[in-house]
TrEMBL record:
Protein name per its UniProtKB record: Family 43 glycosylhydrolase
Gene Ontology BP annotations: carbohydrate metabolic process
Organism lineage string: Bacteria, Pseudomonadati, Bacteroidota, Cytophagia, Cytophagales
Pfam family, one: F5_F8_type_C
Similarity remark: Belongs to the glycosyl hydrolase 43 family.
C-alpha cells in the first residue's frame, strides 16, 4: 500500500496524535532489543509468588522447522512461532495430562526435529511423561510419539547426528554431572546405559563458582541445561552454570570427536556471558541457525527480585571462528541490534550504534509508591523499578535527555508491581502514549498505542524515522494488572556532543594466590557513563564483554587459573564509544 494511503488510513482510524501525523514504529522492523518482548506468562507456582506475583520463564529453545521459528520455554502453557525472529505469535497449549500432578508444564523443554516432525519433551524425574509430536505445530496439532518416555530426564536435550543416530543429554544438579545416552530413533527406547559426560570444576574455572560474587558462599555450583551442536565434525556439548539467579549465569562448552565423549573444555569459556548492563545473564539456552545459516544463541536473563526464578530471555549473535571456537557476541547485549537479512559475520557487531540517552538523567512522575523512586526507571538495572501510586490512566513518567538528541528507538520495560495473576494469561494488554517535546512545554505524540490489544512487557519501538527532541513522556492508558511501574524507560539514539576520550590508567591485577580472579581499575572518565571491558584468551579472541556503570573498578573472578588472559577497555556515553586501550596481556 502506498505510504500516503497508510497515513490517511491511520488518520481515519485515530491512530496518530491529535491533529498530527506522527512517527510510528517501523513497518519493516530492522532491529530488536533484549530482553525479548514476549507475552511472558506469570509464575504458576504459588510458593514462588509469595514476595509478589510476577512474570517468569527460562531455559529456552528456538528450533527452525519448515522455514519458521518455534520457541519453547519453561512454564508458558504453550509456545511461540515467528517468521523473522522478531514478531512472535503465542499458541496456547498444555502438555500435561490429568495424571501429571505438577505445576511444571514443559519445564526446560527438549525440542528437536526428526524428518518432517517436530518433537517436544518436558523435564521430569519420573518415567511418566510422553514425547509429543506434530507435523503442524502452527495449528496446535499434537499427539504422543511415545507414552511414557522411559528416561526421567531433567533439563533434557535431544540431538540427531548426521549419521541418523539419536542422543539424549540431561542433568540439573550441584552434585551430579551431565549424562548422555543413545536413544532408538524408531522406538525412542534407550540403547545401553547412561554415560557420564562431565561435571563442573570450580577450582579450575572461576566463573563456575556459586553466588552473585562467585564465592561459593552457601552452596556448591549448579550444572544444568545441556545442549549439543555439531560443527565441522566436532561435538560441542553446552551447559549452564553456576546458578540461574546470578548475574554471572552463563553457558560453557566442552568439545569431543564423539557424541558421548570424552570431552575437553574449550579454552574460551564461558562462551555466552553477560554479567553487566541493564539485564544480566546468558545461561541455559540453545544454539541454532536461522534461515540463512547464521548462528544464534538464545539464553536466560536474570531478574531474581520477587523470586530466584524470576527471569527473561535474550538472543545473541553467535558462531564459530576460524579455529572452531564457539562464541556468543554479547557486546552491548541489551542495546538495539540489527535483525538478520541474509548471511552475516557475527564476529562483526550487529549493534546499531544507538546509544542510551537517558542514563541517570532527570525524571518527573505523576506519583510515587513508597520507596519505588523515579530514578529507578533510568538507573540501568532491571532489578529496580519506579512505581506510580496506581495503575490508573494518566499516570506518567517524563525523562529529560539533557539536550536535543536524535532518538531512534525506545524500550519500555514494565515491572510487575502488585500484579494479580498466576500462570499464563490470555487477552491482557498494555496501552500508552509516548510524547516528545523539544522544550518541555509544547508536546507531540511520538507513539500512540492507546488502542493496542497486545501484551508487551518489554515493548521495543524502532521509529520509522529518527526524531530530534529533548523530553519524552510515557503516559499510561491501561495496565494489564497492578500499578503503572517501570524497571527501565530506555531511550536510544545519538546525543549532540562528542564520544568519550580513551580510558586512561587501565590496570589488571591478577593475584598469585588465586589466578581465577583479578582486580581491574582505571582512571574515571568525566565524559563517560559506562565502560565495556573486553576479555579473552588471545588478543584476537576478546569474545567476552562486561559493561560497568558508575564505577572505575571491577572484580573479575571468571578466569581459568592456568591460562593467560587479554584485556582492553572502552568508555561509553550518549554520543558514542571511545577507542579501545591497547590490549594488556595478563599471565
Amino acid at each position: 500500500m502506498p505510504r500516503i494511503l497508510l497515513l490517511l488510513l491511520s488518520a481515519l482510524l485515530g491512530l496518530s496524535g491529535p491533529g498530527q501525523a506522527q512517527p510510528a514504529s517501523s513497518p519493516g522492523q530492522r532491529t530488536y532489543c533484549n530482553p525479548l518482548n514476549l507475552d511472558y506468562g506469570y509464575t504458576p507456582i504459588p510458593n514462588f509468588a509469595e514476595a509478589g506475583r510476577h512474570r517468569a520463564t527460562a531455559d529456552p529453545v528456538i528450533t527452525l522447522y519448515k522455514g519458521e521459528y518455534y520457541l519453547f520455554s519453561t512454564n508458558q502453557w504453550g509456545y511461540w512461532w515467528s517468521k523473522d525472529l522478531y514478531n512472535w505469535k503465542f499458541i496456547s497449549r498444555s502438555f500435561l495430562k490429568p495424571q501429571h500432578k505438577v505445576y511444571d508444564d514443559l519445564c526446560a523443554p527438549a525440542v528437536f526435529v526428526l524428518g518432517d516432525t517436530l518433537l517436544v519433551f518436558g523435564s521430569t524425574h519420573e518415567k511418566n511423561f510422553p514425547i509429543w509430536m506434530s507435523t503442524n505445530p502452527k495449528a496446535n496439532e499434537w499427539r504422543e510419539a511415545v507414552e511414557p518416555f522411559q528416561i526421567g530426564a531433567w533439563d533434557p536435550a535431544f540431538f540427531l547426528d548426521d549419521d541418523g543416530k539419536l542422543y539424549l543429554y540431561w542433568g540439573s544438579s550441584n552434585e551430579f554431572p551431565l549424562y548422555g545416552q543413545q536413544i532408538s530413533r524408531k522406538t525412542f527406547q534407550p540403547i545401553g546405559q547412561p554415560k557420564t559426560m562431565f561435571g563442573l570444576n570450580d577450582k579450575q574455572f572461576g566463573w563456575q563458582r556459586f553466588g552473585e560474587y562467585l564465592d561459593n558462599t552457601f552452596l556448591s555450583p549448579f550444572m544444568e541445561g545441556a545442549w549439543m551442536t555439531k560443527y565441522q565434525g566436532k561435538y560441542y556439548l553446552q551447559y549452564g552454570a553456576p546458578g540461574t539467579e546470578f548475574s554471572g549465569y552463563a553457558d560453557g562448552v566442552q568439545i569431543s570427536d564423539k557424541p558421548l565423549g570424552p570431552f575437553t573444555p574449550q579454552k574460551h569459556n564461558p562462551f555466552a556471558y553477560k554479567p553487566g548492563g541493564f539485564a544480566r545473564g546468558a545461561g541455559h539456552g540453545n544454539t541454532f541457525q536461522d534461515t540463512w545459516g547464521n548462528w544464534w544463541h538464545l539464553s536466560t536473563m536474570v531478574i531474581s527480585v520477587k523470586n530466584n526464578f524470576e527471569r527473561r530471555l535474550g538472543l545473541w549473535p553467535a558462531g564459530f571462528d576460524k579455529d572452531g571456537v564457539l562464541y556468543a557476541n554479547t557486546d552491548f547485549g541489551d542495546y538495539p541490534h540489527y535483525l538478520p537479512t541474509g548471511p552475516e559475520d557475527h564476529l562483526k557487531s550487529r549493534f546499531t550504534g544507538w546509544m542510551l540517552l537517558n542514563y541517570q538523567k532527570p525524571v518527573q512522575v505523576s506519583s510515587t509508591l513508597g520507596g519505588y523512586e523515579p530514578n529507578y526507571a533510568v538507573d540501568e538495572s532491571i532489578k529496580t523499578c519506579w512505581s506510580a501510586a496506581t495503575g490508573n490512566k494518566g499516570e506518567y513518567l517524563q525523562t529529560d535527555l539533557g539536550s536535543l538528541s536524535t532518538v531512534h528507538a525506545i524500550q519500555i520495560n514494565y515491572a510487575d508491581q502488585d500484579a494479580a495473576f498466576l500462570g499464563k494469561q490470555q487477552g491482557i494488554y498494555h496501552q500508552y502514549r509516548l510524547w516528545e517535546s523539544k522544550d518541555g512545554r509544547k508536546w507531540k505524540v511520538l507513539v500512540d498505542k492507546s488502542r493496542n490489544q497486545t501484551d508487551v512487557p518489554h515493548d521495543y519501538i524502532e521509529l520509522a524515522r529518527p526524531v530530534q527532541t529533548r523530553y519524552l513522556k510515557l503516559e499510561n492508558i491501561h495496565m494489564p494488572t497492578g500499578k503503572f511501574a517501570l524497571s527501565g524507560l530506555r531511550i536510544f539514539g545519538l546525543g549532540s556532543g562528542s564520544p568519550p576520550n580513551q580510558v586512561k590508567g587501565f590496570v589488571v591485577l591478577r593475584t598469585e594466590k588465586d589466578k581465577r580472579s583479578a582486580w581491574l581499575n582505571w582512571t574515571p572518565s568525566a565524559d563517560a557513563y559506562a565502560y565495556n571491558i573486553h576479555v579473552g584468551i588471545a588478543p584476537d579472541k576478546l569474545y567476552s564483554c562486561i559493561m560497568v556503570h558508575g564505577a572505575a573498578e571491577y572484580y573479575f573472578k571468571g578466569m581459568d587459573k592456568d591460562l593467560p588472559y587479554y584485556y582492553t577497555i572502552e568508555a561509553i556515553n550518549e554520543n558514542g564509544v571511545s577507542s579501545r586501550t591497547s590490549v594488556l596481556a595478563v599471565k
